[in-house]
Amino acid sequence: MDIRAYLKEFGLSEKEIEVYLTLLKSGVQSVRRLAAATKINRGTTYDILKSLITQGLVSYQHREKHQYFIAEDPEKFAQVVAEKEREISSLREKLNHIVPELKSLYHRAGGKPTVRYYEGTRGLRTILTDVLESVYEKKEYLIYSTVEVRPYLHAAYPTFTQERVRRGIGVRVIAIGEGGQLKGLDERRWLSSHATGAPTYTIIYGTKVALISVSDARDPFGVIIENESIAATQRFMFEW
């Protein structure tokens, strides 16, 4: 992987990457010289250095009343990742204790449907991720698949099918329109190979129904309706 791409994936901004790599190659530097080398103004360079210091990637020293900065050993990245893993592990342990209580508050409304709205590619990915996370026990969900929406779902989560199969999650599909080949752990029925005009993609999983479509401006959006009765009604079509 390209070094800059890795550092960006690590969470650094473009300017943080520029400052860090310049400092790594040039050794100890003052803010003035570092700003000149990176062509970033001094005020912004100083703010970037403070951020890198907070992340443990840069340190500083004083010489003759002046402050100089130096990049930490690249091994520091492994230490930072290890520390983040410890923090995540601690957070996960805390969540295991509070999630049951949060769920009781979440469902306190009883049988009243909960509706959540999502927009754009990121919103679609949130919906698809919710599908994977919600069916970890039953390991199956249902789909009314339409050719008009499939490309947007793939763009939002290109590896979704691979992740579904990896988790051992099955899917039963009623496909509207062409395409939608079998990919593993799936059953599929086609209503018509020439069908069009079905612009809504429906996913039934657990007590939820996700409806995904595209606006007139070709922007994807979706809603998740959480209600056992609505989900049960949608499931009737799949009694084959």
Automatic annotation (TrEMBL):
Matching InterPro entries: TrmB-like, Tscrpt_reg_TrmB_N, WH-like_DNA-bd_sf, WH_DNA-bd_sf
SUPFAM superfamilies, per the entry: Winged helix' DNA-binding domain
Domain Transcription regulator TrmB N-terminal: 7-70
Alphabetical list of Pfam families matching this protein: TrmB (PF01978)
Source organism, top-level taxon: Bacteria
Protein name: Transcription regulator TrmB N-terminal domain-containing protein
Provenance organism: Candidatus Uhrbacteria bacterium RIFCSPLOWO2_02_FULL_49_11
